[in-house]
């Protein structure tokens, strides 16, 4: 389903949604009591993880924009939180084109904030689920040139796709649609860095009806199979910093993060 502002989106306020829980963790106001109820049960480190994820995205896309990447496909966008991805990359490349995708109707309600592009560039939004990759790519082809490099951004998304839903296959399929010189930007919750905290988070999300598939470093590394990891490789979110990007302050993190080039 493509963006349609003529009809108000139906929002299920009786069931928690990852995008709205994430918004709550970031201190946003576009969430409902059911989302807050999940967030309140999470350990304080969950707020840190949301912040760290967001900061990693900022650094990673700034790094790529500085190297001339001017097309971005961001899946699992979440509720707009400034600076949004297009604002970051268009500071460096005003002509950059960005396609956002998310499966929460509340993101559609706020899509106008995602569509305020620089005059030279373009942004677009589709309400779709990463489990429907063909639909996302079909829509993105109307905005992005798939004959030129594209950065695929999957920030704190794939741990919401358990193994029985073929998370690795989904990412592999998306990567295979991209030309040489494209990049994969991915962050993912770890099961093996702070196991007790991770299990607590998984249990609390499950009570809210949200399944999680946290993974080990080796399992996260599989998302990058066949790709060329950009230094410093697959590290925690607070350890990743690209060339020319101000590194973050040292801080523990339960999130793996990496950027890789498609050869």
UniProtKB/TrEMBL annotation:
Q: Which SUPFAM superfamilies match?
A: S-adenosyl-L-methionine-dependent methyltransferases (SSF53335)
Q: Which GO terms describe its molecular function?
A: methyltransferase activity
Q: Which Gene3D superfamilies match?
A: Vaccinia Virus protein VP39
Q: A biological process (GO) annotation for this entry?
A: methylation
| Keyword annotations | Methyltransferase, Transferase
In terms of InterPro entries, this protein maps to: SAM-dependent_MTases_sf (IPR029063), SAM_dep_MeTrfase_SAV2177_type (IPR006764)
Xref: Pfam families = Methyltransf_19 (PF04672)
Q: Write down what this protein is called.
A: SAM-dependent methyltransferase
Tell me the organism: Streptomyces salinarius
